[in-house]
Amino acid sequence: MADDDESRTRRDLLRWAAGGAALAALSGCKKPTPRPDEPPRDEPTPAVAADASLVRVVSVPTAVEGGVLPDLLGRFREQSGLRTELVASDDLYALARAGKADVAVSHYGHKHAEQFVMDGFGEWPRTLFSNQMALLGPKADPAGVRGLDDAGEAFRRIAASKSTFVLNDIDGVRYLTEILWNLAGRPERDGWFIDDRAHRREDAIRFAAEKSAYVFWGLTPFLRSGNAELEPLVLGDPLLQRMLVSILVKAAKVPGVNMVGAGALQDFLLSPITQAHVREVRYPGAARVTWVPGGRHNRTAFLPKK
User: Fold this and answer.
1) Residue 209: inside a domain, yes or no?
2) Residue 176 is part of which domain span?
3) CB atoms near residue 61 (< 10 Å)
4) Is 23 part of any domain?
5) What is the CB-side half-sphere exposure of residue 306 using CA atoms within 13 A?
6) How far apart are CA 105 and CA 84, in angstroms?
7) What is the pTM of this model?
8) How many Å apart are CA 116 and CA 140, to the nearest integer?
9) For the chain, N or C: smaller number of CB within 10 Å?
C-alpha cells in the first residue's frame, strides 16, 4: 500500500474507533514447533488483541529527558482522546520486539534500528526532529570559540591554539570529530588532542572539566548532568544535529500492537502544527532552541496534505 493511502487509512480507522466502534481482535494462530537454530524473537506467538485506547511509546532517553515527547504526547492525548504510555530506554528495540511498544523513537543511526526494520518488526523510519550536540568547553574559552555557529572553524581554533580537547569515545562523536579534524586541515594531534579510548559520556565530561578541555556531547544529557565547570559554547551548526525517527511496530510480527493508534500518533507528530511546536520546546532552564523539526525530510507523498 502506498504511504499516502496508508496515512489516510489510519486516519479513517481512528475516526471510526473514536466514534465508538469496537476494534476486532487480531486472529489467533498456532505456534509451530521451533527449529533448534531459530532465534526466540522470530518465533510466532498467539495473537493478542490490541488495546485500541492506548498507544505505547518507547524512546531513547534524550527525547524524554529533553521534554519533547512528554510535551507532544500531552497534546496528542488532548486531540485524539487516546491514552499514551511513555518509557525511556537505551534498549528500546528489545522492548519493542517483546511486544511492549507500538511506536519506537530513536536516533536514525541507533545501533539496533536497522536490524529491527530489516527483520520485519518495524515499518520504515519516519524522521521527526533532531536534537543538538554541543561543543562544550571551559568558561575561560582559551580558543575563543564561544558563540560560533561553524563547528569546523571552532575546531580549527582549538587545534591552532593547542587548547586541550578530549574525545568523547562514542561512535557518533568520534565520527563527527574526524570530519572536523579533516575540515581543520588534519593538524598534528600531539600536545592537545586526548584520545585514549577510555572516556565516554558522563565520564568524558568529568574528565574534560578536570583538564579545562573542550569536548562534544549531546546538549540534553549535558544539561541533565548539571556540570558547572563546562558550558555549551558552539551550537547551531547543522553538523551538530542528530535526527530522531519514529518506527511503527508491525502487528503482523508482534502480538498486541495497536497499529491504528500508532499510525495516528505518527500522523500527529508529522503534522505542520506539531512540527512548528517542536521548535518551541525547551529543555528546562535552557533559552536556546533545543529541538529542530525534521518531518520535511520524509518523502512528499507521505506528508500531510492539510
Assistant:
1) yes
2) 132-240
3) 15
4) yes
5) 5
6) 14
7) 0.77
8) 45
9) C
